[in-house]
Each structure stands twice: as C-alpha cells, then as structure tokens.
CRP-like cAMP-binding protein (Sphaerotilus mobilis), 241 residues
Amino acid sequence: MHLPKPRRRLAAAPPAPADPTPWLIAFGTPPLGSGEVAVLQQIAIRRPVAAGESVFRDGQPARTLVLLLSGDAVLGSRAADGSLRTERSVAGPSWLDGHSAWLAEPHAMEALALSDVVVAELPIEILRLHLTNMPLLGLRFCANLAREVRSLTDASRNLLHNDAPARFARWLVQRCPGHGERCEMRLQERKRDIAQQLAMTPETLSRLMRNFEARGVFSVNGYNVVVHDLPALRQMAGEDP
C-alpha cells in the first residue's frame, strides 16, 4: 500500500479569544474554574503560524509555555540533510511545550505547523506571579506535567519492549477514541514520519499495513483509516482484553 504525499492541511477556524474550550481540554478533568481560565486568557499571547512554518525551533530559548489552540503540528528534530525527523504529532488543543520554560532551558525539539495553526504562549515569569495566589492552578500544571511524563514512559516502553507489529498496533489504538468495536481516523503524517516515530523503516511499516489489512483489522483509503476490529487491534498491541 502506498500513502500519497500529504498536502498542507486546511485548518478549521481558530477559537475566539474568549472561548474557554481549548483551556478546558488542555487541562482535562476536573474542569478549570472560570477564574483560572480568565487568568490564563488574560496573560496568554495568541500567535498565528502558517502551514509549513516553525512554531519554535530546537535550541531556541523557551520563555513561554506553548499551547496549540487549533490546527495540527509535529514535533521532531532536524537531520543532517535538513529534513525533520518526526517524533510526535499534535492536534490542538494540546500542549506543544509545557515544560521547557519551567526549567529555563531551550526547546528540546522543533515544532512545525502542518496546517495554519494558532498558539497561545504563557510567559513563564508572569504566570509564576499569578500562581503564588492561585495554588490550585499550580497543582493543575503539575498534573499536566505528570501526564506528559506518563505518556513518554509509555512511549519508551513501547519502543523498547514491543516488536514492530505491536508497536504499530499500539500507535493505532492510541488514536482510536472510546472502547467500541471500530473507529475511523485520518493519518496526518507521511508514512516516513510514522515509521520514524515507531523506530522502523518505511518498508517495514508498508508490510505491516498490508498484513493488517489482509487480516481484516483495518482498511486504508488514502490517508483515511477505518479500524474494523478494535478489540483485535488491542490484543495485537499487547493490551489486556
């Protein structure tokens, strides 16, 4: 199976500045209070970034926490030939970098916009001042960082302990919402980029996709994927039934 070269994605309209939805999604449950959302919206600096442009670069000083409000982006590092080695794809609302500014360290990866995106940047020094009077909001940032550590731990375990089919199956399962029998998704990355995330060659990924399709686990039409047997996919990923 051959995946076509992706085009820059069209982006939905970004949320209005007063719309609390991106912040509520980014912080998860329990929902942020209206006062906490108001403070974040007050200090956030909104910035549009055109498709194909960098949101920030590897090694650039990080003075803000960066939330992707809308659109799609990838995180990765530049190879010797200048191409971006993709490590993770991100769809807004989601954090692009919620840790570097806390450490007063540069961004560890480059963030590249796949579509036109809008980001919200929280200046860390201004945020610190507000957190002295809002300890519960500070705890929510701690929870965000804990979730990120957990996600990275799971990704590392997947790469170290699972074979190629299990790694690919787990990658698909993580993109399937809910616990039903089937799901549909749209792959945003090129096959080469997906293979890089899973520590395999594009040829290996192509063979796996053909195998999964032949077994009736999923079907692919261009970049649209329909998972027909989600329980089987979870079993292939090594998850408990």
About this structure: The first helix runs from residue 21 to 27.
